[in-house]
Amino acid sequence: MTAFPLQTGLILAAVLFLLGLIGVLTRRNALFMLMSIEIMVNAAGLAFVVGAARWGQADGQVMFLFILAMAAAEVSVALALIVRMHRQHKTVDVQSLERLRD
Amino acid sequence: MNVIFYIAAVVAVVATLRVITHTEAVHALLYLIVSLLAVAVIFFVMGAPFIAAFEVITYAGAIMILLVFTIMMLNLGQAGARQEKNWLTARLWIGPAILTLILLVEFLYVFTLDRGAPVSIRVISPREVGETLFGPYVLGTEMVALLLMAAIVGAFHIGGEKPKNYHRFFDKKKEGAL
Fold first, then answer.
1. A88 in contact with chain B, both atoms CB, cutoff 8 A
2. Which of A40, B85, B168, B178 has its CA 20 to 30 A from that of A76?
3. What is the pTM of this model?
């Protein structure tokens, strides 16, 4: 039972989300882009948990669990794509993949 | 409690900054794990101990292990780091960074517009989360299970090595046909 300013939590979520956005926009390495997407997903989950704390309900935390499962599914498929890309083109640079056909 | 929150927030932001500016994949991944652990501390402070434990076990544990093994398999090494260093020139990142900073200022403005009274944090127990998860949200839970199944099948299909020869019977058949 502590008093807590929730705006700071939302601001932290926004800062983390935008840092991830900068990462996606600037990096060319597919692995770094994937990590940045993870940062963004995590920041969105943080915003949900802040909402759960604001209203004192468990719904926001349930949403975070769904986001977690979605992130796990997305990472597994994306990593499989990256491994496939490295096997076919010997690079993880997204700019060198100008054509999707090999 | 507020002091703990601010310390963890600063750690999370600094670690995330290092993630998006580091050139070596493994070091960036370690910073990402630190960032996730800091966010787990923030969850704990915010009265979500169950979610904090899940963040450590699933995010910092399982998902990051997937990334570690992929980096090991790809074996990018020094050449990859050098290439990354070449790409990380100010000319490339200054544009997106400035535009995103504008978005950040807008976010800050919106969030500080109505500074509500600080609410008292109520710890939401794992029991309550579980009852909500399997009560009103049981359909969502089923759909998440389907999504995970589809992800397993998709990852296996995309990442699995295709065998060159299926069976000697098919080879012989092909030779005979040709």
1. no
2. B85
3. 0.84
